[in-house]
Design brief:
There is one protein chain. This protein has two domains: about 30-340, Glycosidases (TIM Barrel); about 350-465, Jelly Rolls, CATH 2.60.120. It is α/β, with parallel strands linked by helices. The protein has an eight-stranded parallel β-barrel, surrounded by four helices. The protein has nine helices and 19 strands. Keywords: Glycosidase, Hydrolase, Signal. Alpha-L-fucosidase is responsible for hydrolyzing the alpha-1,6-linked fucose joined to the reducing-end N-acetylglucosamine of the carbohydrate moieties of glycoproteins. It holds the Pfam family Alpha_L_fucos.
């Protein structure tokens, strides 16, 4: 018996050495599906619907279904380009505000069933679901609650109509990774607005696709960043008091940065279109955002504790326009060149303190679940990077292990170049990922000081980058 007890104690001590000191979470913390969603970082939005053929952004619900007639629709082309561009999934506008449905729903008469496309036998959602599966992408669904066509809109019965359409989409097309609600709420054909039954809508997703995250201004799982221009904010908290707001909330600007002391984890998503409009307009063929512009958007979204949802307006043929495709692939090439960690194994990284089992070496390994932990008594801990040979950089990356909560409120970065000149820049929150850019320089050392935090400072990843433009020049100079 004594021998067994000794063996047990030895095993426990060994486990302590392997797994280190137990670190307490700072609440709120993300769920497993929120963590999985955050790791996607970048995926696509497909705006393709009746508006594509009427050349407007918002339809009125009076459009003739015969107008919807793509001549070369090819969802495999969408998925192939998205995959080549490095996207992890595609979210499709199954129904926009005009009410026209891209699949043969039993709950509306305004759909592809009445269009000449495939003699009314087509189903765009099915074709995209199959294409995503074929190309290794995740499928997401946008279903606007506003419906300017449906005769029940503005009455209690419409909420069940919408829920029934949700059920169709959630049960007939395989796994869904994200369900996207639009906050727009205007008048329907009877001149009335709808009082949406959000608890009912949310319950449909949790019942039929519990692994899917739900997007709206207030979540429940992920939220709108507060603009459609492609950037998150310098201060970007994932915590939020979601019960205080609702989709379409008129004072959403008060919540766009999240809330440091929010009770719920509702991380931000940045939605932006590759063109000025969300739908295809031929006059915008020469207004596609460049790869360099997209890279700056990436840094200001993924690099500010958000995920990036990039919209691609499919044209009237049913294809991604070559200008959009070229920019998406160019953006992938810029990322491949730029997002390379320049820290070498021979370079030195030190910290002002540590706790057992969480050494500073964990910030440079490939495992984002491991992390450096500063001593709880170290109120302004530091990380110092000293390369063996000077390195040309214009950005650093910091990540927190968000499974234990978002902590850092403020930090500073001291950059010392080879001539001994030093510059200090300030940063705000970190969260899942923070990319802090600065004027390019040949660097002798970089010191990060964590000035304020909601708890013990934990960092899972530290990188230095040189972000390069499409012209092979520094993007930040």
């Amino acid at each position: 018996m004594v021998t067994k007890r000794i063996l047990f104690l030895v095993l426990m001590l060994s486990a302590g050495r392997i797994y280190g000191q137990q670190i307490k979470p700072v609440y709120p913390i993300p769920s497993a599906k929120q963590l999985a969603w955050q790791e996607l970082e970048y995926y696509g939005f497909i705006h393709f619907n009746m508006n594509t053929f009427t050349n407007v952004e918002w339809g009125e619900g009076k459009e003739d279904p015969k107008l919807f007639n793509p001549t070369q629709l090819n969802c495999n082309q969408w998925a192939r380009i998205a995959r080549a561009a490095g996207m992890k999934g595609l979210i499709l506008t199954a129904k926009h505000h005009d009410g026209f449905s891209l699949y043969p729903s039993k709950y509306t008469s305004h759909s592809v069933v009445k269009s000449p496309w495939k003699n009314g036998k087509g189903d765009v959602v099915r074709e995209l679901a199959d294409a995503c599966k074929r190309h290794g992408l995740k499928l997401g669904i946008y279903l606007s609650p506003w419906d300017r066509f449906h005769p029940d809109y503005g009455t209690d019965s419409y909420n069940q109509v919408y829920a029934n359409m949700q059920k169709e989409l959630l049960t007939q097309y395989g796994p869904i990774f994200e369900f996207w609600y639009d906050g727009a709420n205007g008048e329907g054909p009877n001149g009335k607005k709808q009082v949406y039954d959000w608890p009912l809508f949310h319950s449909m997703v949790t019942t039929y696709q519990p692994q899917a995250v739900q997007f709206s201004d207030s979540g429940p799982d992920i939220r709108w960043v507060g603009n459609e221009r492609g950037y998150a904010y310098e201060t970007m908290w994932s915590p939020l008091n979601r019960e205080e707001i609702y989709p379409g909330y008129p004072k959403f600007d008060d919540y766009r940065q999240g809330q440091e002391n929010g009770k719920h984890w509702v991380a931000p998503e940045v939605d932006v279109s590759i063109r000025p409009g969300w739908y295809y307009h031929p006059e915008q063929d020469d207004k596609v955002k460049s790869p360099d512009s997209l890279m700056k958007i990436y840094v200001a979204s993924v690099g500010r504790n958000a995920n990036l949802l990039l919209n691609i307006p499919v044209d009237t043929r049913g294809l991604i326009h070559p200008n959009d495709s070229a920019s998406m692939i160019g953006f992938k090439q810029v990322r491949d060149r730029s997002l390379i960690n320049l820290i070498k194994s021979s370079d030195e990284i030190t910290a002002s303190s540590r706790v057992n089992g969480h050494p500073i070496s964990f910030v440079r390994d490939v495992n984002k679940r491991s992390f450096w932990a500063a001593d709880a008594k170290d109120t302004m801990p530091t990380i110092t990077f000293t390369p063996q040979n000077s390195v040309i950089v214009n950005a650093i990356v910091l990540q927190e292990p968000i499974s234990l909560g978002q902590r850092v409120k403020r930090f500073s970065v001291k950059l010392t170049d080879v001539a001994g000149h030093a510059e200090e820049i300030n940063g705000q929150t970190i969260g899942n990922k923070r990319i802090l850019t600065f004027r390019e320089r040949k660097t002798k050392s970089i010191q990060v000081k964590f000035l304020d935090a909601r708890g013990q400072v934990l960092i899972s990843n530290f990188e230095v980058l040189r972000i390069i433009s499409q012209r092979n020049e520094p993007l930040y100079q």
